[in-house]
Amino acid sequence: MIEQSRSSARRRRPTGFEKVDFSDLTPDVDSYLGQAAYVQLGFFQVLSELSVTTSDLGAKQIIAQAAGFALAKHEGIVSEIGRREKKADEAMAPFAPAVDEFLLSTAGATKNEALLSVYITQGFLDDLYIGLTDGLPSDVGPRIASLLGSDSGANGLVTLLTEAIDVDPKRADFLAMWGRRLVGDTLLLAHHALRINPGSATEEARVEPVFTELIATHTRRMDALGLTA
């Protein structure tokens, strides 16, 4: 099992994001925090269920550790909501339907598809929300960026997926197809996180550099598994 200290994790910022101005795409701070908190809660729930249904003790521990990291991020954002004298459930409620639908559509039919879903979509969305902290108040943004850039347990998930592919190399093609499908669903949810007018050609052009960078990091994640993006 791969063990990583939360204290030694560095803030992760996707390569190239410094070239993209996120500030005018960031929603108001309360909306941002509500969305980000519920997304992390969703990943915690998915990983917890995977851990419960996994029989291998080593894999169970790795997945449970990843669930713990997601919960820690959720709780950190909830604390930030509390600092603003808001209620977390009220802040998250408007975004729950879209996130729940997203998690259902990306659940996968097998354990390995589910693991790949979390690895890909959590990384994708963490990168997006880190970038969007550029537009948050200076007393909030750096703290949230550091929180979201901390360890997510992704290396452990990569180990489990790599081992599964080594056991049965035919899985690689199926997982590669599944990974490509995840991009579309994740981009749809990402639109909900941006301050844009959906359907506007001008707005789509404005966010294109952001999504280009997100897809580039998605490709690197797939490469880490030896899969074609």
UniProtKB/TrEMBL annotation:
InterPro entries: Ferritin-like, Ferritin_actino
Domain called Ferritin-like: residue spans: 31-189
Gene3D superfamilies: 1.20.1260.10
Protein name, entry field: tRNA-(MS[2]IO[6]A)-hydroxylase (MiaE)-like
Organism: Okibacterium fritillariae
